[in-house]
Design brief:
Number of domains: 1
Shape: globular
InterPro entries: BchJ, NO_sig/Golgi_transp_ligand-bd, V4R
Organism: Thiorhodovibrio frisius
Helix content: 40-55%
CATH topology: H-NOX domain
Pfam families: V4R
Strand content: 5-15%
Number of strands: 7
CATH architecture: Alpha-Beta Complex
CATH class: Alpha Beta
Oligomer: single chain
Low-confidence stretches: none
Mean pLDDT: 94
Distance between the termini: 22 Å
Bound molecules: zinc ion
Protein name: Bacteriochlorophyll 4-vinyl reductase
Radius of gyration: 16 Å
Strand order of the largest sheet: 1-4-5-7-6
Number of helices: 9
Length: 208
């Protein structure tokens, strides 16, 4: 079964927007793993210095998220940029668990066996995909392993790299799956548009 979602319910030619976690949590991760100076530099390179003092409280233009990810890769090594991006994804997962995913739904997911819980979680994610993939397209396919795909992925847009770079999504999915599906869940990006793949693909596995 393939389920897809992600096209924003946006009228006309409005530019795609993404939830502010993709900015706020990257800032937090830079402070945690790098330094305030590095955070200043990365945000300046992205043209987003104003967010260092005033964090966005509403959805931001997709172009800002793309610029911030490009700045991470420009200012840091690809490994360090990946670590920051992944940490930002984990923090986004924590935020969603604390503020966005209703507690009764979380109890149901934790009670279900991993397979059905994962299916229900990814279905719920599909309904909200437009808030985090912008103009991208989200889909998933249950199986061993479970596969999530994001075409026209905003995180790696414009990137050419020697390894997958969409650690932000891998981190967010991993945190959600570890809490709601199985503590053994691991998520890795196995195909990335930055390496020429037609879509970014993530594998979720809790059976290893
Ligand atoms: Zn990717």
């Amino acid at each position: 079964m393939t389920v897809s979602g992600g096209q924003a319910p946006q009228p006309g030619a409005q530019p795609a927007r993404i939830g502010p976690n993709a900015i706020i949590r990257v800032g937090e991760a830079l402070l945690a793993l790098e330094s305030a100076e590095t955070a200043d530099r990365v945000f300046a390179t992205a043209g987003l210095s104003h967010y260092r003092q005033n964090l966005p409280s509403e959805m931001v233009p997709e172009a800002e998220v793309i610029a911030l990810q490009q700045a991470l890769r420009a200012e840091l090594s690809i490994e360090a940029a990946g670590a920051v991006s992944r940490d930002a994804g984990l923090r986004t997962g924590d935020y969603l668990l604390a503020h966005r995913i209703p507690k009764p739904a979380q109890r149901v997911l934790k009670w279900l066996p991993p397979g059905p819980a994962c299916r229900m979680l990814l279905k719920a994610v599909a309904n909200n995909a437009w808030t985090f993939v912008g103009s991208g397209h989200y889909g998933f396919e249950m199986g061993r392993p479970v596969r999530v795909s994001i075409a026209q992925c905003p995180i790696c847009r414009g990137a050419t790299a020697s390894l997958p770079v969409c650690d932000f999504y891998a981190g967010a999915f991993e945190r959600l799956c570890q809490i709601l599906v199985s503590p053994r869940a691991r998520v890795r990006e196995t195909q990335c548009q930055a390496l020429g793949a037609p879509a970014c693909q993530f594998e979720i596995d809790w059976r290893r």
